[in-house]
Structure formats: C-alpha cells, structure tokens
Amino acid sequence: MRLMLIAMGGSNHTVKWATALRNRGHDIMLATFYPPNEIEGIDIRYLACRNRLSMLFKVRQVRELAKRFQPDIVHAHYASSCGFVAARVGVRPLVLSVWGDDIIEFPRRSLIHRWIVRKAILGADYVTATSRMLGSETEQLVAGRRKARVIPFGVDLERFRFVERPSRPTFHIGTVRWLTKKYGLEYLIRAFAKLAAKPFSLKLTIIGWGPLRPKLEALTASLGVADRITFTGRLPNEEVARYFEQFDLFVMPSVSRGETFGVAAVEAMATGLPVVASDIGGLPEVVADGVTGRLVPPADVDRLASTLEQYILSESMRREDGRRGRERVERHFDWNHNVQMMIDLYDEILAHMR
Fold it and tell me: For the segment 59-96, what is each residue's pLDDT rounded down to a tens digit?
C-alpha cells in the first residue's frame, strides 16, 4: 500500500507511526512543514514554513507531490495544521487523525480557529481519535457530520516491560511531562512538599522540558524540597523506559481537558507502575480508578497528597494496581494491535473504493 502522510516530521508520534507502517511493508512518503527527524526507509519531503499561515502557500506543492507519488491513501495528522492543508489539497481518500489540542483548545481561540478545524474535519473522508472523549469532542465540532473511530496510541510492550519492584529505602515518585501550565506540575510539587514534611524518605523525578522549568525549580527551592526533586530535561524514549524501572509510583497531575489520552500513563502502566492521575480529559479512559491507580480532582493539592500517601504506605496496593495496569495495557493499548487497527481501517477504505 502506498501511504502519504502529512504530519509534523519532528514529532515522536509521527516517527512512530511512519516507522510502524514501513515495518509492515507499506511504501511511505512523509510531507512535513516542520523540521523532520530522520526516519530510515521513509521518503521525507520537507516543505519549510515560517508559521502556520505560510502552510497555505504549500498546498500546490503538496498536491504535486501526491500527483507524483500516487498514494492509495493520504493520512493527515493534527487537524489545525496538517489536516487543514490536506483538506485543501483535495486528494482522496483522506484520513485525518486528531491529537488533542487541535480539537480541545485551538477551536476556542476564535471563530476563525474554529472554522479552520471544522474545514479540516469535514474535508476528511475518515477521522480517527485516540480516545472516546476526543472522538466525541471532534464529532460535536461538526454536529455529527463525521464519526471518529477510536484508535489508541499504544506502547511497545517489549520496550516497556513489566518490572517487579523490590522494597527500597527511598520511595521514588516520577512523571513525564512538558513543563507547561496545562500539565499541573506545580500541584504535584506542592503535594510532594506536604509529604516531604512527614517522616518519609522520598524523591521526585520530573522528566521533560519546557518554558516553566525556571519557575518550577524556584518553587521547589521556596518549599525547601529542591534537594529531593530532580529535573532531567528531555530524554530519549529508551532512557525514559529505564527510569520507569526506578519509580515506585507515577503521577499525571494535568489540569487541562487537552490531556485527551495520556501516553506516558500507558507507558508507566506497562511497566507495572500504579498511576495517580487527574480526573480530566481522556485520562479516565486510561487509568481505571481503584483498579490500576487513582483519579483525583485536578489542582487539588490535599487530595493528591493524601492519595500519594496511600501508595507510599501500602506496598500491596502498589503491587496489585501495578499488575492490573499491565494487564489493562496488554488488552487495550498494545502498539502492535493499535497499528493493525489503523491498517484495518485502510483496508476497509480501499475495499469500499473497489
């Protein structure tokens, strides 16, 4: 099958999709407006743009690429940029995968932003979303004129292996987040500081980077816990998996509905970590409350601290929730199965065209 992807070439999500589809024997061209990562075996066409508006001037070039490549299917990722351009290109059939912010946040900026996303959705023949919540929001934007098929963005179960964690003298809490306001890291740090005032030996590792790092580091210093909290910066996926083996508990303290899935939570669960997450967005579809972890109200420092303390005090609770988390990932979020779900959609589309 010849597949033309129109997507953000620098995104790990794009790399993961393109690589998986190539490994299944498909011929892939990737058209991107963003500086791309190198992906072995993929024909990458970088159409440099200064900003989102300048993408509109690349429609003709993308159309010419499609004319030469002759794809069986065009698949655009992210409605508010690549999806809108793909809809203007007009090559059929067109699949659009929505990611989160493009549906939850972008359309709320203005009527023009909303119009852009609606055009992208209605310009696609098929739409996919990573969660039921995101799919529902997408359908509502176009008054049900398109239906979204849910295809989760799962994890590699070989890379993120189940780990039996021994009792350790220091309890290690971890998270993987962009350091921006929507991910609620301030509340995790404040909850951690409450627990650090008790007779527990604790440490917190925050993996990721972003504009809030200086403010968050200043907050740790003001709360007197800077010596117990490590900011690693951005790490390769392989190194993140090694960090998960060192953690005893994983936390997703998001405060935005734009958290429509929670890949990091799925990765953590795959290794047998219980997850404490905010009850917001698509996180309740990933973390089964009272089964694989706990859901807490967003931005509630006291509830977050008390829930973390329950796990600190109960090794059996950590083990049971961690084991059930791995089982849940194997059932619903196995990356190989999720890739096959997408290929099944492609096959359905081509069958309907015959």
Answer: 999 999 999 999 999 999 999 999 999 999 999 999 99
Residues 54, 141, single domain; the answer is: yes
Are 146 and 53 found together in one domain?
yes
Q: Which amino acid is at 264?
A: A
Alpha carbon distances (Å) from 263 to 13, 193, 267, 346: 10, 26, 6, 23
- Expressed as residue numbers, the domain containing 247 is 171-332
* b/e per residue 67-88 (b: at least 16 CB within 10 A): eebebebbbbbbbbbbbbbbbb
Instruction: Say if residue 264 is exposed, middle or buried (CB neighbours under 10 Å; 0-12, 13-18, 19+).
Output: buried
pTM for the predicted model, two decimal places? 0.92
Please check whether residues 176 and 135 belong to one and the same domain. Answer: no
Same domain, 317 and 220: yes
Give the H/E segment covering residue 148: strand 148-150
In a domain, 47, yes or no: yes
Grade residue 203 by pLDDT with cuts at 50, 70 and 90.
Answer: very high
